[in-house]
Design goal:
Elements (H helix, E strand, L loop, with lengths): L19 E4 L4 E4 L6 H12 L4 H4 L30 H5 L8 E6 L2 H14 L3 H7 L12 H14 L18 H4 L8 E4 L3 H14 L27 H8 L1 H7 L17 H40 L1 E3 L5 E3 L2 E2 L14 H16 L5 H20 L2 H12 L3
Parallel strand pairs: 2-3, 3-4
Antiparallel strand pairs: 1-2, 5-6, 6-7
Helix pairs in contact: 12-13
Length: 397
């Protein structure tokens, strides 16, 4: 498609969002929202961009699986800028009118809130335990289906995502209109979670027009072992969710229907409850390992700082400390300049002779230490400083 002279602007009076992934060579922009196939789509984008996967695996943020490492900080993305990283001139060219494919995915608030609560709180995600382990609405370790439902209803009725610091701004619990900004971004299309197959087909079509079509790297990441049941939305829960996420329903409500939700038909088996309980134990252990890894990382950084402060002697004999050159060595005292090496050799020979005598080894060690300190002082400490040191020594300081 030819570039129009005045393409429709990408942004409608809003700042460039940071939850964006730009693939300039593929003319694609993905606006991310959590709990709406975010993990799957991030891996797909990372593969298209040619990102190195190893940094995602190496994070120590407390993620339970390798796949979840894709969320451990945007600093690990080296080839996929955000919209707010681009210049105004670059932003001006991003538009569906210029052949760009700009998309996002949304999900019904019922299953999205259930998924967020289960993966982050019921299963005791490490980061969420750091922040909210003392909250009265924190669910217990799963022991029965009845207990899970009871704790879920207590959480929904408390609505902590409205006013608990941190949780009120957490992307997993905020309405999707905040990250998606449907009125502020000119999308090619916003897809429903149930339309992922359509999205992938549209991506293939878009890439085909550019001559860049390839197999998409599609991974399924499911961190919620307990599927929704009809009971999850009973006892006023459905009405609370519809009120709390009224903005989402106003923007996308025609896409969602209770009748179309994928529900577990017969509740949860005891094996499913045990599986969920195992996740809590695994996350607890991951938290232990993360804490230890962070401690070791701090110690390593401290050791590196100390090492960088040490005096470094180069191959040419020059010395530096903290990256700055040291002053040249002080000249040897008069009378020693002609034979300093022979003097040291003679002194060491005397030490060896003393050390061979029974009972004199301690004296020899003291002599060697003193000789070493004296020699180093003579070579690196200026004469004026040495004079003050000798004077202080005579005064008994």
């Amino acid at each position: 498609m030819s570039v129009t002279s005045t393409p429709t602007p990408l942004l409608n009076g809003i700042s460039a969002p940071a939850n964006s992934f730009v693939l300039p060579g593929h003319k694609m922009v993905y606006i991310d929202t959590t709990k709406a196939a975010s993990t799957t789509l991030r891996w797909m984008v990372a593969d298209l961009a040619g990102e190195d996967f190893e940094p995602f695996y190496a994070g120590i943020g407390g993620e339970q699986t390798r796949l979840m490492g894709i969320h451990d900080g945007r600093q690990r993305w080296k080839k996929t800028p955000r919209l707010n990283d681009l210049s105004p001139e670059e932003l001006a060219q991003i538009s569906p009118d210029n052949g760009w494919f700009i998309f996002a995915v949304v999900r019904d608030p019922y299953s999205r809130l259930w998924s967020a609560w289960e993966s982050k709180l019921l299963l005791r995600n490490v980061k969420f335990m750091d922040r909210y382990s003392d909250q009265p609405w924190l669910p217990r370790v799963p022991q029965s289906g009845e207990q899970v439902i009871e704790d879920w209803r207590a959480f929904v009725r408390a609505r902590p995502w409205d006013d608990v610091p941190g949780l009120d701004k957490d992307a997993h619990f905020r309405p999707q209109v905040h990250p998606i900004k449907p009125d502020g971004i000119n999308y090619t299309k916003i897809y429903n979670l149930s339309e992922l197959s359509t999205l992938f087909n549209d991506i293939h079509t878009h890439l085909g027009k550019l001559g860049l079509d390839q197999e998409l790297y599609i991974l399924k990441a499911n961190d919620t072992p307990l599927r929704m049941t009809a009971e999850v939305l009973d006892s006023g829960v459905r009405e609370i969710i519809e009120d709390a996420y009224a903005d989402d329903f106003a923007a996308f409500g025609d896409r969602w229907s209770i009748d179309k939700l994928k529900l577990a038909p017969n509740g949860w088996s005891s094996d499913a409850i045990d599986h969920a309980a195992f996740h809590t134990v695994a996350n607890e252990r991951i938290g232990d390992l993360r804490t230890e890894a962070q401690r070791l990382r701090r110690e390593l950084r401290a050791a590196r700082r100390k090492l960088n402060q040490r005096t470094i002697t180069a191959a040419d004999g020059s010395q530096t400390a903290n990256g700055a050159p040291l002053a040249p060595p002080a000249p040897l005292p008069s009378g020693m300049r002609d034979r300093p090496r022979s003097l040291v050799t003679e002194s060491l020979a005397r030490c060896v002779a003393i050390a061979r005598r029974p009972g004199d080894r301690a004296l020899a060690r003291k002599f060697v230490r003193g000789l070493t300190r004296w020699t180093l002082l003579r070579r690196v400490v200026p004469d004026s400083v040495q004079q003050r040191m000798r004077a202080a020594s005579r005064r008994g300081h």
